[in-house]
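Sequence design from tokenized structure. All designs in this work follow the same two-part layout: the structure record, then the generated sequence. An example of the structure record is given first.
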């Protein structure tokens, strides 16, 4: 069964929850109208899925919906921002009711617990593409101190890495907002790992032409996976693996993680901050302009050029 655009929006995207008093006009005929408090700056982050993601998941609406909303809101979280408002641009070859019902439910499963309201979008026909733009607020005083990474910073990863098929998108409440806020307050910089750890590390270093050494033996993962990767030198798979909810981040030297410095806690995953969750120091930032992945026996793991790039060039 196929539905028209207006009915589609009313039926699947126009929902009562969450109620937000700062949404003066939400989904309707006009552009959305939002109340931004004085002294706050608007922060936005975008996530897009396309036919490649559709093929990967065979069009599974639950996976696609969760992933899309999770990545957009995690990107805001990496900036220390909680999502308040989101918009959705959706292009579908055909508007099928069961697919739309499952897709929209999956989106709201991630956004409602965050208190983020869907305030509008656009819907068109064509090959699958879906884009969420998430919006949130940052205090102006916080915005003024723009975080940046520097040589000497610790390089860290939250949670536990996986190299298996992408199937671990956030269930309710797993968007790392508290961690992102804490990193920002410490003067660190965070990136989401939704395009792989290799890409995230490069994104952190590139703006400043910095380098880093990452010790593969420190990457947080299950012991079984580590044995597999060590046995078949399968690190590339891990570095390219997309994880929608974890962050890769830097922390300035001597950051007080309430119970000590990152350097003193580097050995294994520990619950550092209660609700900030687990994170592990995996390496350090340096001024070499070169990103090096070092194996447990001290050898360099040779990643393809784009993961091993000389960032100074
Ligand atoms: P327009 O004629 O301006 O393109 P639409 O019929 O596309 O208007 O949209 C009507 C209303 O529904 C607008 O408020 C728009 O923001 C909202 N909307 C359209 N598509 C979506 C969507 N996929 N998700 C949420 N809101 C949507
Ligand atoms: Mg339209």
């Amino acid at each position: 069964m196929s539905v028209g655009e207006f009915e589609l929006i009313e039926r699947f995207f126009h929902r009562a929850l969450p109620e937000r008093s700062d949404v003066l006009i939400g989904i309707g005929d006009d552009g959305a109208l939002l109340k931004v408090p004085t002294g706050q700056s608007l922060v936005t982050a975008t996530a897009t899925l396309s036919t490649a993601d559709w093929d990967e998941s065979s069009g599974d609406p639950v996976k696609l919906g969760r992933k899309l909303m999770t990545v957009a809101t995690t990107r805001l979280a990496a900036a220390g921002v909680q999502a308040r408002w989101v918009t959705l641009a959706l292009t579908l070859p055909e508007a099928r009711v069961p697919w739309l019902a499952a897709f929209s439910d999956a989106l709201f499963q991630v956004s409602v617990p965050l208190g983020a309201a869907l305030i509008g979008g656009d819907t068109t026909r064509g090959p699958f593409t879906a884009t969420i733009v998430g919006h949130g607020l940052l205090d102006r005083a916080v915005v003024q101190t723009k975080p940046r990474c520097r040589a000497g910073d610790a390089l860290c990863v939250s949670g536990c890495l996986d190299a298996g098929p992408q199937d671990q998108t956030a269930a309710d409440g797993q968007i790392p907002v508290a961690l992102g806020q804490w990193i920002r307050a410490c003067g660190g910089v965070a990136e989401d790992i939704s395009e792989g750890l290799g890409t995230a590390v490069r994104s952190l270093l590139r703006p400043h032409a910095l380098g880093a050494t990452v010790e593969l033996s420190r990457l947080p993962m299950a012991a079984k996976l580590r044995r597999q990767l060590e046995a078949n030198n399968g690190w590339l798979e891990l570095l390219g693996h997309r994880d929608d909810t974890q962050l890769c981040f830097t922390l300035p030297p001597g950051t007080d993680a309430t119970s000590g410095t990152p350097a003193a806690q580097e050995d294994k995953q520990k619950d550092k901050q209660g609700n900030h969750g687990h994170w592990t120091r995996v390496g350090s930032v340096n001024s070499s302009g070169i990103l090096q992945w070092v194996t447990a026996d001290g050898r360099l793991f040779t990643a393809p050029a784009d993961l091993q790039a000389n960032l100074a060039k």
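The longest strand covers residues 40-50. We note this feature because it recurs in several other targets discussed in the main text.
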